[in-house]
Amino acid sequence: MARRVGYNLALRHVRAAQEFAGDVDDGYNLADVLNSALNKGVIENYQVRPIVNILLVEKFHYAFDSQNLRSGVESIDALSKSVRAWTNLQVVLVYTDSNGGVQLLNPEVLEPWGDVLPLAKDECIVCYVGSLVDVRPPELVSAVKSVYKLLYGGKTRMKPSFQTETKRKKFVVPEKEQAAAPELAYPDSVTEEAIEPVSAKAPVAHKTKRPAVAKVAVNVTNELFHNGNVEAWKKIIESYRLKYPGLDVLIWYDGERINDINALFKWGKVKHGTPILFSVAGDSPRDLSKLRKYLFEGASPRFEAFLHGAHGTVLRLF
């Protein structure tokens, strides 16, 4: 917030969240609204989770629950059919795919599901259920549980509070796309004039599904990938994410996605000569050769080179 770029970024984010709140208040599903904004370049992927939380949880008090999928999901036909009848409720699902991409899904709109099905076992999914009419919180919690039952192929009974004669509003993307949020002024103090646009940028094409580069192998040359190597890798990845906030480094070992790098040390299985794979998710990955070089050094006896600096500081490697 002390620099122009950060200040403008924060103001654009706040303004966007306020506009989306109006859409939700009008009865539109937030997944449809945000997917449209992503495709028009109005927001970026890293803004999705903060916007979902501040609106659905903090402002509109949706009930929610997260799970690591107990089984793979091939079809959502039963879920979609049931949710279409819940005219009192709005259901939003946020799925994290195997590339670390965040997918916003509305069970009533099938097109976005084509890019993510089948849902993989053990991946994270969060279900949010809310209502703009008088549906009590316990009923919303019950609806969340019903969504998961239907997602796994089970059956559930619809409660009377889930349905009215009201017809659901469908979010329609305007034929003429608006320009992305404009750059904002950087004033001496925050006033109403501070958020008046001073210039405009053309919209940027943006896909909601984040592609990832092919997995790249890094061989462990230390006698064991121990705690020091783990800390070195964490420092390197933290530095990369700081330099490129729109990109993410994903770690893979023995065919599985590793969400906690510490697990590679705790398992005690990663020995000399064993490959650990990484990929980069996001649009236009950069500095891949440099990232591979640093990770190779971090997996070698020379890992200590990355452990310098005060606690809490981030290395400037990229």
Folded structure, characterized:
Helix 1 packs across helix 3 and helix 6 (227-243) packs antiparallel against helix 8 (288-298). The longest helix is centred in the first third of the chain and has 22 residues, at 4-25. The strands form two sheets. This protein has a four-stranded antiparallel sheet. The chain has a four-stranded antiparallel sheet with strand order 5-8-6-7, with helices on one face. It folds into two domains: 4-162, no CATH class; 216-306, 2-Layer Sandwich (Histidine-containing Protein, Chain: A), CATH 3.30.1340.10. It is α+β, with helices and mostly antiparallel strands and 318 residues long. Mean pLDDT is 80; it is low at 173-209. A hairpin with a 2-residue loop joins strand 6 (248-253) and strand 7 (256-258). The chain has helices spanning 4-25, 30-40, 48-59, 77-84, 137-151, 227-243, 262-267, 288-298, and strands spanning 63-68, 90-96, 102-105, 124-130, 216-219, 248-253, 256-258, 275-281. Helix content is 32%, strand content 14%. It contains eight helices and eight strands; from the N terminus they run H-H-H-E-H-E-E-E-H-E-H-E-E-H-E-H. It is globular, with a radius of gyration of 22 Å.
